[in-house]
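hey so i finally got around to running the thing on that chain from the lab meeting. sorry it took forever, my laptop kept dying and i had to restart like 3 times. anyway pasting the input first so we r on the same page abt which one it is
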Amino acid sequence: MSRNLFDPENFIRPAQAPGLTQENPMAARYAVKGEAYARQGTMVAWRGALSFERQGQGVGNFLKRAVTGEGLSLMTVTGEGEAWFASDAAHCFLVDVDESHGLTVNGKNVLCFDASLSYEITTVEGAGMAGGGLFNCTFGGTGRLALTSAGVPLVLPVTPESPVYVDTDAAVAWSPQLRPSLHRSQSIGSMFKGGSGEAVQLKLEGEGVAVVNPGEPKPAQASA
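ok and heres what got predicted. didnt touch it at all, straight out
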């Protein structure tokens, strides 16, 4: 049975408690009471007494453009109110990080996160000055973050006996205790997503999990 868009049950009600929650499969809600961080360009709506400040080159050591040539621009959200975050209708999911379970994330998949989390730039061994998803952010401490994926992500177990090889553009996140490295395989490179002939994959070894993007947003069409 179809429902009218403006039926009362479709209206979003105020949050009952501060913090980060999932609003729907493609959006996260942050009920801010103090401070939070988000990737610039992902806030789609807000209400309350909030202020937003661009971080320019990033917060702390989160962004090192001089090293990577690219990175993640953040904004600080402060005050008391609610803000909603989304990215090109990508699938959104939440991750709880604690002292025992950190997470390494591809910067372009970060949506927003608690200010209580710590983070640092990590690079894949052998990446050199390569760009793309080879420069990542390792989160630690205790808190919650929202990530995006172009579809429902694949969560793949990694064991010492079974390393996982991932298209470098498809890597969303992985356990920080895994050992990432670049794997070159000319024979199977063109069989990865897109069939572009890319001969370099991300190899993850050890004990943990790998989160893999099953698709990618279509690039914007150039205007005539």
